[in-house]
Amino acid sequence: MVFANTRKMGIMRTGEFAERIIEGRINVFQERPLSYPPFAYDPYHVPETYYAPKQSINTNMYYNIGYADLKKLNYANLKRDMANNPQSMDMLAAYKRSMNVSTSLYVAGAASIAGAFAVYMGEGKNAYSTASFTIGIGLGALGLGLITGGYLKTHSAKQKLENAIDIYNK
Q1: How far is CA 68 from the centre of its chain?
Q2: Contact status, residue 81 vs residue 65, Cβ threshold 8 Å
Q3: pLDDT, tens digit, 9 for 90 and up, residues 131-167
Q4: What is the distance between the alpha carbons of residues 57 and 67, in angstroms, rounded to a whole number?
Q5: Is residue 51 predicted with pLDDT exceeding 80?
Q6: How many angstroms from the chain centroid is the CA of residue 124?
Q7: Residue range 102-119: mean pLDDT, rounded
Q8: In whole angstroms, what is the distance from residue 80 CA to residue 118 CA?
Q9: Quick check: 30 and 38 in contact, CB under 8 A?
Q10: Reported confidence tier of residue 42, pLDDT bands at 50, 70, 90
C-alpha cells in the first residue's frame, strides 16, 4: 500500500492520508480518515476504553503524475494533464456530458419535488382534494425518479472517469 499526505491540499487541512487505489502514469488516491482523533495523544490510555470515531466514507479523490504533488481529481485538472492522449480525452468528454446530464436530472427532480410541495400547500384550497393529491403524488414520484436517475447517471459517469484514467495509463 502506498499513501500520500493531503495536508498541502488546503489551508485548514489536518494531517490526512490518501491511499493509492490506481497505479500507473496517473496514480489515483482516495483519502482515508485517521483511526484516532488528531492531537489526542494519551500515553496512559487503556486500549479497551479508547473511543475510536466511526469510519466514514470519504469521497475526496486526488491524483498525481509520477511523484508530483497531489491534485484534486476533477475534470479541469485531468483535461490539462491528459491532453496528449486523444482516446482518454474522448472518454473524459463523455464523463463531462454524463455529469451535465446528472446535474440536470438532480435539478429537475428537486424542482418537481418543490412543485409537489407547492401543490399541497398552495392556493388556499383543500390540499387533500382528489386532483391536488393526484398531481402532488405524481410530481413527487417524478421528482424521486429523476433524482434516482441522476444518482445512477453519476455512478456511470464515475466509471467513464476511471476508464479515461485506465486508457491513459496503458
Answers
A1: 24
A2: yes
A3: 788 888 999 999 999 999 999 999 999 999 999 999 9
A4: 26
A5: no
A6: 40
A7: 95
A8: 44
A9: no
A10: low
What is the grid cell recorded at 77?
485538472
| Residues in contact with 137: Cβ distance below 8 Å, sequence separation at least 6, in sequence order | 116
Residue of 29, 25, 24, 26 lying closest to 1 (CA atoms): 29
HSE-up of residue 43 (Cα within 13 Å, Cβ side): 0
Residues 6+ apart with CB under 8 A from 151: 102
For the chain, how long is the longest CA-to-CA vector? 68
CA angle 144, 147, 153 (to 5 degrees): 140
Q: Read off the pLDDT band of 122 (50, 70, 90).
A: confident
Which of 23, 105, 115, 5 has its CA nearest to residue 60?
5
Given a cut of 90, whether residue 91 has pLDDT beyond it is yes
Contact 96, 82 (CB under 8 A): no
Residue whose C-alpha cell reads 498541502 in the numeric block: 8
